[in-house]
Structures are given as C-alpha cells and as structure tokens.
Write a structure and sequence with these properties.
heterodimer, A: alpha+beta, disordered C terminus, B: mainly alpha, 6 helices
Chain lengths: 91, 254
C-alpha cells in the first residue's frame, strides 16, 4: 500500500504491516481527545512505523497514495483545523 | 472511520481542486504542466526566503552571544574589583540574554528543519514534474482524446497529490518564516533601543561605566595610600595586613 506522510513523500508499505498501522492510527485517534503529549507520542509512533517498514518509490513514480498521514510536526490544533475545515467533524 | 481515512479524504479533495481541468483532456495536460512549473518556481523562491531568514537569525544569535560573553567578562572584572553587587547585576543581565539565546536557538533549529524539508520537497517535486512531462507527451502521442482520459486521470491524481503536499509544506515554511521575521524585528528593536547594548560598542552601558569609575576610583585610592605612607614615613599596606600576619609571629615566638 502506498502511504504519504505530508512533507516527507510516499512510502510503499507491505500489506502485512497494515494491521499494526491501523492499531497505531486508532491510538492516535484516541489520543486526539486527551493531551498534547499523548497526541505527539501517538503521531510519532505511527509515522515512525511507516518510515521503518516503508520503502521509497522511485523519484519519478506518479501514483496516488491510498493513505495520507499528517506532517511530523503537526500539532493537535493543526490536525483539528484540517479535519474541521471541511466540516467532517462537527465541533 | 480512522483518523487517517478522514485525513486522506480531506487532503485528496483539496488536492483535486488545485488543478482545474479543461474540456479537452489533452489540453488539461499542458495547462497542468504549466501550473506545476509555476509551483516549482515558487518552491525554489520559498527555499531562498527561508534560507535568508535562517541567516538573519544566525547573525542575531552571534550578536547576543557576543553580548553575553561581554557581560561575563564584566562580572569577572567587577568581582576582581570587590564589587559583588555589580557582578550580580552583570550576571542577571546575562541570564536574561541566555533565555533569549536559548529561545532563538530553538527557533533556528525549527527553521533549519523547515528549510531542509522544503529543499527535499522541491527535489521530489522536480522529479515528479519531469515524470509528468514524459507521461504527458506519451499520452498525447499515443492515445485519442477518449482513450487518453484514464491515463490522464492516473497521472493527474499522482501529481496533484504531490503538488498539494509541497504546497502545504511551502505554506508551513512561510508561516514559520513570518513568525521568525516578526521575532527578528523585535530583537533588532531591542538591540537598537540599547536594552541589549549593541555589539558595535559605540555606546557604553551602565556596567561598563561603573567598572570604569571603579578603575579610576581605585587608582585614586592607591595614590592616596602612597601619599599617606610618604607623610607618615611608614608603608601603608602592612598596616592592613597586620592581623593576618599576627598568627605567624605567634608561632615564631612559641
């Protein structure tokens, strides 16, 4: 699966890693409602996992990613702003 | 729905809006390519802007560091002259500067990080734009307008995502640079106001003046002591040291 980390580019992640990535994503989602520290930890864990198991596609590879992840130094507010802007999450 | 799923949807809907589509899909290709080149130019200018801000910050850091070193020297001079109050004042000012310096160093690290990411993004974008150009020429040469559509959509979504990503990275770098410029302005004003004495050394701060007064003052004191000695016919200094010398004399007697 092709995953993009905003600001870093794309990674090809083997399908058997997806379960773990989904788990880390669920943790991030939960952390979003708690504290900035929890959020930071959860985001780092998720992005680190993608960087660790992912392989870079060739520089001239042109393909849409299946998943887009926030940039590494995104704050909780950045994420909320992005999600709220289009009205997907009310409040 | 997981966080990334929502995030992906939002990002893609934004990225798709970034490139307008023309009636003839093959015209869209050329138009889109123009837009890509424009963004590439913009990103390169962005890299230059961030680098300028970073260099300015480095200059200010050097000035603050110089000022801090000077205050440390003054604290030593004041202590050597027995003026603990003045040394304390110099060290207090220095610790105020240390906070500023640490703060600027953090900002500098962030800015350098943004710069590095933007440089990498611009290199990535360049490779993708080049790949798009090749694909575009192939599509135009090989397919009819109707057939081209699917191929174009593929190339299109790949490149719009990259454009969206780089566009956001640019925005973040610009925001960071703007913050930094406001911050840099404040420090320049602070330096200009004399609150942090400027490193050109044209004006003298209160600690320097006091140290100079001390130096000329102790000069007067030593001349006075010398005069007293002449008048009384006995050296002035030993009188002050006498108590310290006493135990030694006792030992000799014992």
């Amino acid at each position: 699966m092709l995953i993009r980390i905003l600001g870093e580019g794309q990674f090809i992640v083997p399908d058997d890693e997806l379960a773990e990535i989904n788990r880390l994503d669920a943790e991030l989602e939960a952390a979003l409602k708690t504290s900035e520290d929890n959020f930071r930890q959860a985001l780092d864990a998720l992005l680190d996992k993608v960087r660790e198991v992912g392989v870079r596609p060739p520089a001239d590879h042109l393909e849409e990613s299946s998943v887009i992840l926030p940039f590494a130094d995104a704050s909780e507010d950045d994420i909320r702003d992005m999600l709220n802007e289009d009205g997907l999450i009310p409040g | 729905m997981g966080l990334w799923q929502r995030f992906t949807l939002i990002f893609k809907s934004k990225a798709n809006k970034a490139l307008d589509k023309a009636e003839d899909p093959r015209e869209t290709l050329d138009y889109s390519y123009e837009k890509q080149l424009e963004l590439l130019q913009k990103v390169r200018r962005g890299v230059a802007d961030v680098a300028t801000s970073r260099k300015r910050l480095e200059l200010q850091l050097a000035q603050l560091q110089q000022q801090s070193d000077k205050l440390e020297g003054q604290a030593k001079a004041a202590l050597a002259g027995g003026r603990e109050d003045l040394a304390r004042e110099a060290l207090t000012r220095r610790s105020g500067l240390a906070t500023q310096i640490a703060d600027l160093q953090t900002q500098h690290a962030q800015l350098a990080d943004q710069e590095e990411k933007l440089v990498a993004a611009s290199q990535r974008l360049q490779a993708k734009v080049e790949a798009f150009r090749t694909k575009k020429e192939t599509i135009k040469a090989t397919y009819s307008a109707a057939e081209a559509q699917t191929k174009i959509n593929e190339a299109f979504s790949g490149i719009s995502e990259e454009l969206g990503d780089v566009g956001m990275a640019m925005q973040r770098a610009e925001d960071k640079t703007a913050q930094m410029q406001a911050r840099g302005q404040a420090i320049d004003e602070l330096l200009a106001s004399g609150a942090l004495e400027d490193s050109t050394g044209t004006s003298k701060d209160s600690i320097t003046l006091e140290l100079e007064r001390m130096a000329s003052g102790s000069d007067v004191e030593s001349q006075l002591a010398a005069l007293k000695a002449e008048v009384s016919g006995a050296p002035a200094a030993p009188a002050i040291e006498a108590p310290a010398a006493a135990p030694v004399a006792d030992e000799k007697q014992a």
